[in-house]
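Sample A.
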Amino acid sequence: MAGIYFHIPFCKQACHYCDFHFSTSLKYRDELLAAMHREIALQNTYLGGTGQQIETIYFGGGTPSLLAAADLNGLIDEVGKHFAIHHDAEVTIEANPDDLDHEKVQALRATPINRFSIGIQSFFEEDLRWMNRAHDANEAHEAIKRVQDAGYRNITADLIYGYPLLSDAKWQANINQLLAFDIPHISAYSMTVEPQTALGASVRKGKQIPMQEGQSAAQFEHLMATLTAAGFIHYEISNFARPENYARHNSNYWKGVPYLGIGPSAHSFNGTTRQWNVSNNARYIRAINAGGIPCEKEELTEQDKLNEYIMTALRTVWGLDLDEVEKRFGSHYRETLYLGLQPFVSRGEVLLIGQAATLTGKGKLLADHIASELFVD
């Protein structure tokens, strides 16, 4: 099976830390949606031809919850014209709390959307203002309750840690609030300073102190201990879930399942190539209307595929399987990786049981470094 990702490039306002592609103007909303419909038809062979079964659909962005339920339904219907959507497909929408009023939630009940990813980030007013989030603390609480009251149980909520305003006590309170709501899936991300953002500019100009690695590491370790004790499985570096509540769409990314990205800046992968659309709404619309796909593409070498497997597998609870490496890439690479893992095993950063290599709690703090050290040139 495969997945479909929709990048909805609209936001009410720019969060100070965000460097994803988006626009705060809805001026070309209708033209862009029409182009996304056309792109689905133009890309219908990327995943191997018509009839390919779609297991997951994910609306990301940007802020997909800015769209009307009818807009989202229309895109799902267009997918169904060109692909076979599995009867039990996971259909996720990323949503900001300020969009989830009673009318919007009830309208979404009439669509195939069955999973909400709610961008909470914090339950503290001053933190939300510092991030320049569009919602306030009360809306963060009310949105979760409203979605749950509407009958949705498949919900994930995002939190951010490792920024100056977030004391350890506030971090514990944020975690406790999601546990009190009985949210079955929690995603948490360390605040990063990207150069082309308002936060990046503030740090460069000395108006904002840099993020502190020690704070981020300590709060991540506390998150791991707290959620594990509460019965969550830390199944990917940034993701925790109660049993049977893994995000199917994102899990498929880490397992190398093909997916098609629709919309400006959306990425696609079909096992042999990767491609990514232009991050410009106007250029995207013009190219699609002219019958072309405004993307760059790369053919993946065997080494590219192996390095991607190393990077994604190590991030997960399933780990890097040396038998799988031998099966897919040959015994030489299996032996190379086995030897490469030994220093990390001896330092207690990687656990090697049988043929499966997984990161320890200590290793999860160094995930990107460990993966890069194992990459094959």
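Sample B, a different protein:
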Amino acid sequence: MSNRAEAEPAGVQQQVSMSEIFWYFLKLGWLAFGGPVGQIGLMHLQLVERRKWISEDEFVRALNFCHLLPGPEALQLVIYVGYKKAGYWAGILAGVLFILPGYITLTTLAWIYVHYGKTPQVLGVLWGFRPVGLALLLAALVRISRAALKGVFPAMLAFAAFVAFYFGRLPFLLVLFGCGLTFIAWRRMGPGSRVATAAASLLVAARAEAAESMASRLFDISWFFFKVGLFSFGGAYAVLPYIREGAVATYGWISDRQMIDALALGETTPGPLISIGIFVGFLAGNGARVPWLGATASTFWLFLPSFLFMLPAARHMNWLTSRPGLKEFLRGVTSGVVGLIFSISIPLAKVAFMPGGSIDWITVALGLAAFAVLTFWKWRLNVVAVVLAGGALGLLRAFAPGLFGGALS
């Protein structure tokens, strides 16, 4: 008997047609603004309360399960629901439809960015986007810190990750695996255990230089974003240090300025925030005159692990969510992520607050205001609204540079 024929609580629909799957998830993809909280909340409203495709209990268990797998939680939940209601092909279809709007909008924005990025109007919008983008990163850092750094040891682990990544220049994956294994050792064998450190030292991160040919560039894009998707635990903000390490420091596809532009633009488009990889892939491909192939390759390989993990593992959800070692490893990884996010905030802050080489106090004030609204204000505004407000101020500066301290660069 098929897995999807398993007994479900009374009142929950047993099967859903492929037509219903198609139209619902296509619509969801275009409405998926506001990050995973908004996306998952929208799915809960529609799938649990209104359509009753899945029960409340199973929705919560599936969401907890998604936290254990690499990739965006919202995408994994979409794949799970599609699979659960109509089988494997429905899971694939639901996931593709959820990703599609982000691919369309981000490749379009990347094309505009490449061709019109030096016009005063676009420069103005980006000037307003950058401090808000940094504020988004710091607000995420505060949220993750509150959840992850409960106790002295997780805080020490986060600090060690920051030192190892920022000063020691150790590879992203080596740092995160080391944090995960160290946390397991600390919980099971005490803080003095050297087991995790020894295991982590065996990991080797390969660094490749970007090749000039189109085929080699596409291979580099594909391989890099497959690794990003494979190790994207803890949401898009958790993997931003890895994207920067590869796209900026290792391959040199983009600059820090373009990295923070990608973050801001990703927040204004539908779909998972990790879709900024599509924007980066477009710019990386543009360097070898294959921008659309770069965007398509990055999209395919970035999201492939979510499908590869979720579809085979969905039937084993209860067993996997009960593994204590996996949960401890991910807690250590999350602690390390705090240090890594802080480490990339430093170069991005220079881009946002020192666009001409000296401190621009207008952008500092804009960034602090956005951070306060996103973090401390009781009635928090939608993230998209905050980003667009920054862009609107930048556009105003483009038309009236005297109001904001001179011309844009």
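Observation for Sample B: DSSP finds 18 helices and no strands in the chain.
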